[in-house]
Amino acid sequence: MIDLAEDTPSNPLLRLGAQPIALTAAALLLLIAGVTSIAIWRAYTGSAPETDRVVASRQLQARTAQASEQLVEKTKGLEATQQESIDQLQVVQDQLQTMKRLMAAQQADTKRLSEQVTTLNESIDNLRQSFASARATEVETPSVTRKKPARHRVHASARKRSRG
Q1: What distance in Å separates the CA atoms of residue 157 and residue 148, rounded to the nearest whole number?
Q2: pTM score, two decimals?
Q3: How many other β-carbons are positioned within 10 Å of the β-carbon of residue 23?
Q4: Number of folded domains that form the chain
Q5: What CA–CA distance (Å, rounded) separates 41 from 4?
């Protein structure tokens, strides 16, 4: 004969497994207690994590939109500054071209005046040489008769009259 007392396990967990209705009922009670405690906690604190998450995501979206708007404004400011810089650079380039043209004209005037001064210097040198050669020919050919100045003649004839 078989002894039935020896076949039953001595472990208490195995005995619980033998009574699945009791085990299910205990798990259900624990689950209901947990859900009830969460509901009471939410009602007591007045906030639900879902609404906090929604509010946080909306705030994050608002911050993102604000940052995006600021970025757009800064980009527009940079574009305006860049355009101003381009305009100023264009003005400077135009002024540089004008200065180059004026400088070229001034250099041409300076060259023309320098050539005129050279021509004048050559003319003056030619006149000096001409004048020097005229003096040299004057010295080489003595004059035939030189008359005394009229003043001396008058005085000399007056003396003769007074003597005589």
Answers
A1: 13
A2: 0.39
A3: 13
A4: 1
A5: 51
